[in-house]
Design goal:
2 domains; elongated; mainly alpha
């Protein structure tokens, strides 16, 4: 399984380098291959690398994968946005503004979605852990009663029953 993870990391790295090459090519550097080939190589390597890494992992690494993928996509999308801004004020003379727009409009929203998916996965994992510990879902309370969640989690309870109540309340807040 280590082989799949290493192959996945290498493919993701190649995909990232292809994405950066697309960004640099749009900013004016000439590439020896076609842009369409780089787009295909970028997408296949990036997505295929994460699939191989996930297949080689013993546990479902979706949270970490989504955070890494989202971060990389956001960086490439923001770099394209900065390049568009620099070309707008004529500090950069891009060879293909359409390609910069494509990188910006593809990478930034997908990166944000991947990052939000990682956050949702982390919340779901925390909720499952708390439910596994207590065996059932906590009772519902109003939002006004849940506003002091941070205070309840930070204070040290004297009895173990208070700890269980605090965890049940934390579980309830995560569900909302």
């Amino acid at each position: 399984m280590l082989v799949l993870r290493v192959a996945g990391v290498i493919l993701v790295s190649v995909g990232v380098l292809s994405g950066v090459s697309l960004l640099v090519a749009a900013a004016g550097l000439n590439l020896s291959v076609s842009i369409e080939g780089f787009w295909f190589f970028y997408l296949v390597s990036f997505i295929g690398g994460f699939i191989l890494y996930a297949l080689g992992s013993k546990v479902a690494p979706t949270e970490k994968l989504f955070k890494v993928a989202g971060g990389i996509l956001v960086i490439i999308g923001l770099s394209a946005a900065v390049s568009l801004l620099l070309s707008g004020v004529q500090l950069l003379a891009p060879s293909d503004v359409g390609q910069l727009w494509a990188l910006f409009l593809l990478c930034l929203p997908l990166g944000v979605l991947a990052t939000l998916a990682a956050e949702a996965e982390a919340r779901q994992h925390a909720l499952r852990c708390l439910q596994k510990e207590f065996g059932r879902a906590p009772r519902r309370k109003s939002r006004a009663q849940g506003s002091s969640l941070a205070q309840k989690l930070e204070r040290k309870p004297e009895a173990s029953e208070e700890t269980a109540d605090g965890k049940r309340e934390a579980l309830h807040e995560l569900k909302e």
